[in-house]
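Hello Y.,

Per our agreement to keep a running log of every chain we model this quarter, I'm adding this entry. I've kept the format consistent with earlier entries: sequence first, then predicted structure.
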Amino acid sequence: MRAPTMADIESGIRVLLAAPVVCRPALARTLCEQAHVADRFCKAHGTPHPHYGTGTLMAASSTFRQVPRCHDNPRDFLTSMGVLVAALIAFHDNQHL
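Predicted structure for the entry above:
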């Protein structure tokens, strides 16, 4: 997975916000895995992955439903951010074992 930017993280959060709370941790892991697969594909083939894009979290997020950018529930937004950041840290740690 390419290094996430703040725009990538916001896109991932918007995906999580569109999902039920209980599904968010698994969905965050899926986003990380899909971005990683896409990044490896891009490096190997020189083209974006046909389903997951260019290896960014934003590209992986683009295939999922997202809520609009207006956040009417800051607590839910921040909680989703925590879920996504935890998934990113765990994914990074697992890739560097």
